[in-house]
Structures are given as C-alpha cells and as structure tokens.
Design goal:
heterodimer, A: alpha/beta, Rossmann fold, 2 domains, six-stranded mixed sheet, four-stranded parallel sheet, 18 helices, B: alpha/beta, TIM Barrel, nine-stranded parallel sheet, 9 strands, 46% helix
Chain lengths: 412, 263
C-alpha cells in the first residue's frame, strides 16, 4: 500500500486535510483510522460523535473552554528563545513551552476539553501526565475520575500517582498484559464496555476509534496555532523546521497542524528509538511499523508476522506504545512529515544538556525532540527551529535517579 | 451437498433446538495444551452443536480474565492462525460445525481473501470478530460470502431497535446476542428482574432475526440455560469451558450438563 499511493493521490489527501475534510465521515485519514470497536460500544460512540459534531465548535462551549484555558491552565504558554542551545547547536532554537501549562504538559488541553464534554471520566495513562491532567480537569469540572495505569508505569511515575490521588482520582493498577500504557488502554476499554451508558472515556492521545483522533487533534491544535502566531510576532517569520516527539502523537499533531499548510516549513516527528532498531527494543511505530488494527483504529503498529502486537521499550513511559495516531500514519504516507528516531542514551544526554545550559528540565518524552532538533541544526546551520517542549521533567525524577544521576558525577 | 458452510451452521442449531437450546462451545486454540488441541477439539465437538475456536491475540479488549489468560497461554505455546488452519486441515472432520473467533489484526496479517478461502477449505463455517462492527466489515464479509462462510453478527442489550433491525437483516449463520454489557467470563445470574430483562431483550432479537439467536457472555451453568431456554435458540459457553479444560476436569460432564443431559 505504501508503494502504491501516487504523488497525485498524496497531494489530494494533503489538500483534503488542509480543507478540513479529514477525517471523513467514516473517521478515515486516507486509508488509516476508522472505528474497530465491540458492538456494545457502538451506541456510545455514536453519541460521542454526535456530541463532538454539535458541541466542539459551538460558541458557548468554545467560550467556556477558552476561559478555562486562560484562567486555569495559563494559556497562552510562552514561546521561549533558547539562547544557550542556539549557540551550542549553531541554529536559532525556540521552545513552545507546554511544560508551563497547568499540570506540567500539553495533556491538559485535551483533558479539559473532554471533561467539559463528559459526565464521568475514565482515563488511561502512560507517563501519568494525561492521568494528572484528567484528574485535575475532573476536579475542576466536578466529575468523578477513575484512572487506569500499568503497574510498571506506576513505579516509574510514582510522583504522578500521588498527584492524581491528591486530586481525588481513583488510580487502578493494571497488572495484565505488559503492565504499561497499552495494557492500561485495554483495561479502560473493558471498563467502558461494562458501563457504556454512564461512562465517558477520556482518551489521552490522538488515537483510538473515531472520533478520538479528530477530537484530540482539535483540542491540541491550540499549541501550533499559538506557536505560529507567536513566532511571527517575535521572530517576524515562520520557523524553517518544527520538531516534536511522537508516542501516540497528541502533542505532535497539536504542534504540527497549524504548519501543515506552510510548504516552506519542514516538519519532523521524533519517535522513541529505545535501545536500537530491533523489534521489541523501541517504540518507533512510524519508522518501523506495519499497518493493522489496535485499540479501534487502523494505523501503523509494531507487530509480528502473525499480527500479534509486540512489547515496546523506551526510557520514557509516555512514548512506550506500539501504535500511533492514524493521522500521523497518513502524514507519513503522503510525505508531509518526516519521522525519525532518537535512542534512550542520546535522549538522556539531551535532558542533561537542556537542564544544564537552559535551566529547564524537559520531560524525557520531549527530550527526544531535542535530539532531532540538535541533529537538524547541525545539518542546517543558522536555521530557525521550533521545538515542541511538551512537558516538564519533574515526573521523571525516579528514572533520572537511576540513569543520569546514578552514573554521572557532575550532576550528583 | 448443496448446503453452504453458513447454512450448515444454522441447521445444526435448528436441529438441536427441536429438543433443547443448542450449545455453542468456545475453546482457545492450543490451550491449555498445544499437543492435545486436536483431541480437545474433537471431545468438545462431540458434546456440542457448534464449536467456536478462539484465535489468540495479545490485546483481547472484549474479554475477561479467563480468556485473556488462555490467549496469553496459547501465544506462549506459539499458536498462530496459520497453525490453527494447518491443524484443522490435518485432523479428521469433527462432528459439529466450526466457527473461528478472532480480533481483527491477526486476520489482517493473514490476508482476508486468502483466509476466507483457506478457512472454507478446512471446514470453518463462520467467523466472529468482536472488534469489527458492521461498518468496518465490508471487505471481509464480501470475501467470506464468496466462500459461503458466515460472518456472525453480534447484538447487545444497548443496541437501539433500528440498529438491531439493521444488524439482523442479511445476517448469516446465527445471531450472537451478548447478554450483558461488559467482558466475557462474568456471571449473568443475579437479581431475578435482571434475568427477566435478558429474556425480553432476547425475545426482541428473535423477533427481528430470520436465523437462530444464541445468547453468550456470562453463561456458566445448567440453571442459567434453563432460564434462557424459552428466549433463545442456543447458548454460548466460553470461560467456564476454558476453566474446566485448565483444571483437567471432564469436558463431557460440563457440556452434557449444559445440554440438559446427565451430569
């Protein structure tokens, strides 16, 4: 299929996307997307799709969301020139500071938007950033909240588990499957299928069955819209390159969307390269995956020849997922976005470099984008690079204690 | 024989229904033992009217703990869809018609057109795909129809009346009526009014369906079958059978008990 799409077909898909025609009425982004769900959930998805269609762009909903994003989340987040990294890398580096958003990452944009749509929330969480954002949004909106989290992730993201509990959420440890994000999504679906009428599933990334990829993209696109306007105001020009990390892909799709129609802007997504290119050693779905269906959507997956989903590895919990949002699969297919990998070790080095030289501790997820930005800067000296700084790294202290701080005398 | 595989499936349930609800029994392929799969399948088929063979998948999102465990166990034994097709091809035909239950991704990896032809060749009469609603069924349903194999449609207690009619129209084999919201392996018994509600839901499904209606999810014992008997054409038992196989207990005793016989 990858080989069979003509240049004309690719151009047509990009035009449809820019015209707001995608996803189509079947929830498809070209060949990707759709809605592969148990029959029990079909009525709930029809209700959700209808609610999204009638409410998402409605004036009173948009006004309430805008007020909360401003007064409670702290938007617009800053666009920061990174003077020291710019000097070190020989390019003009800017960060879009989602790490400054309330609860410490871009996840709050989506969680708040969905909470305003919902009556009761079921959330799954990998890094815990989405769980914390959902717990906070539910507390703010006045909804009970249940969060499913793999017990492996609970251990490596312990501070976030405590934060969620303090904000009144019930955190359910997931002990099935691989005990990470993917198993948490399986369990959240099982909860939903048990009470499809009384539950709202607050899906944390731009993946899953239609309309989630669309809903999450719409709620996260504020990142790129703000960044594009701020860039024009502060730098007087568009960036030459926009770079963000990709796990499920919500921060990246939110950052990229406003720039897709700017042909001069190179767009790069950076996936978790983990320990290396072998199956099971990384979470680089877009660079090494094949198409299939997982969690209700047809997209690129890390799977074996028999269609069994593979375990993934990444030092960052938030990128440790064997699938990716279907819109990214299409953007890769049509060549509008280039997807590359950053490995565990070079990413941890980037965490250290950014913290040491800019006084900013990035989330390990976001630091993958820094690796891509550094490499692109070195190949394209003097260019202007916008990096999606999707979250702050405080939550990663347990991992950093056993990695950077364990074997680096400078920082300890 | 002029009967298509899908018609054979329907007929087997109707033949049983003349005296009692048909029994559709589920086992996961190659679990608890890969070596004994053919023997297990033959025994289950001997005491059932339809056998549903589970294709293991890493992310069985509609299943409860028992079938999650059996899927992981089968995968650990190296069970694949290719292996299942090869096993069925190599063993003597069993007494009851066979249905394959699989999530979408293993089917896609196999190739839908090739699978429809291979499955028909080894005696598979139908498929059940829990994460493939009608809207996404197009290509696969076409491929199966070309081989006379049924794509069994599921309906649930929360399916609205208009959709129920839509699902029943043109359905083949039998209708899989999910008795309750939730995953497999729970227990459908509870308050009497809950069972009454299941009964009237099944009656409504039967009114729409031109083919037999089988009730599944949460059926574990003869007492439940007795309550459901007036409202359905067959019952589907899964987790209870998998647990019986795991414990090494008598499959015949469980299944004959569910069929209202001795045990």
């Amino acid at each position: 299929m990858t080989e069979s799409m003509t240049e004309a077909a690719k151009a047509k898909l990009l035009r449809s996307l820019l015209d707001g025609q995608l996803p189509d009425e079947h929830g498809r982004f070209g060949p990707f997307g759709g809605r592969f769900i148990p029959e029990t959930l079909v009525p709930a998805f029809e209700r959700l799709t209808e609610a999204v269609r009638t409410t998402l762009h409605e004036a009173s909903y948009q006004a309430e969301l805008a007020a909360e994003l401003s007064d409670w989340v702290g938007r617009p987040t800053a666009l920061s020139p990174m003077r020291n990294l710019s000097r070190r890398w020989g390019a003009e580096i800017w960060f879009k500071r989602e790490d400054l958003a309330h609860t410490g990452a871009h996840k709050i944009n989506n969680a708040l938007g969905q909470a305003l749509l919902a009556k009761r929330i079921i959330a799954e969480t990998g890094a815990g950033q989405h769980g914390v954002a959902t717990a906070a949004a539910c507390a703010r909106v006045g909804l009970p909240c249940v969060v499913y989290m793999g017990e492996v992730d609970m251990a490596r993201q312990a501070p976030n588990v405590g934060r969620m509990r303090l904000m009144g959420a019930t955190v359910v440890p997931v002990t099935s499957g691989d005990r990470t994000l993917r198993a948490a999504i399986d369990e959240a679906f099982r909860d939903w299928v048990t009470d499809p009428e009384g539950t709202f599933y607050c899906l944390g990334s731009a993946l899953g069955p239609h309309p989630y990829p669309y809903l999450v993209r719409e709620l996260q696109s504020i990142i790129g819209r703000e960044a594009r306007a701020q860039m024009l105001a502060k730098a007087g020009a568009l960036p030459d390159c926009v770079i963000a990390c990709v796990g499920g892909g919500s921060n990246a799709i939110g950052t990229f969307h406003a720039f897709l129609g700017d042909p001069s802007v190179k767009i790069i997504g950076v996936e978790a390269g983990g320990r290396g290119p072998g199956l099971g050693d990384n979470a680089a779905t877009l660079t090494t995956g094949r198409p299939g269906v997982l969690h209700g959507t047809y997209t690129l997956l890390l799977q074996d020849a028999d269609g069994q989903i593979q375990e993934t590895h990444s030092v960052s919990a938030g990128l440790d997922y064997p699938g990716v949002g279907p819109e990214h699969a299409m953007l890769r297919e049509i060549g509008r976005v280039q997807y590359i990998m950053a490995g565990d070790d070079e990413t941890l080095e980037a965490v250290k470099e950014c913290a040491t030289h800019e006084g900013l501790l990035p989330a390990i997820e976001s630091a993958h984008a820094l690796v891509g930005a550094r490499d692109w800067a070195r190949q394209n000296p003097g260019t202007r690079i916008l990096v999606g700084m999707s979250g702050r790294g405080d939550k990663d202290m347990p991992t950093l204690q056993t990695t950077l701080l364990a074997n680096d005398g400078v920082l300890s | 024989m002029s009967q298509s595989p899908a018609q054979r499936l329907t007929q087997s349930i109707r033949d049983a229904r003349d005296t009692r609800p048909a029994l559709v029994s589920f086992l996961t392929a190659g679990y608890p033992s890969r070596e004994h799969f053919r023997a297990d399948l033959a025994t289950v088929a001997e005491h059932s009217d339809v056998v549903e063979i589970g294709v293991p998948f890493t992310d069985p999102m509609a299943d409860g703990v028992t079938i999650q465990r059996s899927s992981m166990g089968a995968l650990a034994h190296g069970v694949t869809l290719h292996w299942i097709i090869d096993e069925l091809a190599a063993m003597p035909p069993v007494k009851a018609p066979l249905v394959l239950m699989s999530y979408m991704n293993p089917l896609l990896a196999y190739g839908l057109d090739k699978l429809a032809a291979d499955a028909a060749r080894v005696g598979v009469c139908g498929f059940i795909v829990p994460d493939m609603p009608l809207e996404e069924a197009g290509n696969f349903e076409v491929a199966l129809r070309a081989n006379g194999v049924a794509l069994v449609r599921m309906v649930t207690p929360v399916t609205p009346p208009a959709r129920l009619k839509h699902l029943c129209d043109g359905a083949e084999g039998f209708i899989y009526a999910v008795t309750m919201t939730g995953t497999t392996g729970k227990n459908v018994t509870g308050a009497d009014d809950a069972l009454t509600a299941v009964g009237s839901y099944l009656d409504a499904v039967r009114k729409q369906a031109a083919i037999p209606v089988c009730a599944g999810f949460g059926i574990r014992g003869a007492a439940q079958v007795k309550v459901l008997d007036p409202h359905c054409d067959g019952v589907i038992v899964g987790s209870a059978l998998v647990e019986t196989l795991e414990r090494g207990e008598s499959v015949a005793a469980l299944l004959d008990g569910l069929r209202g016989g001795t045990a």
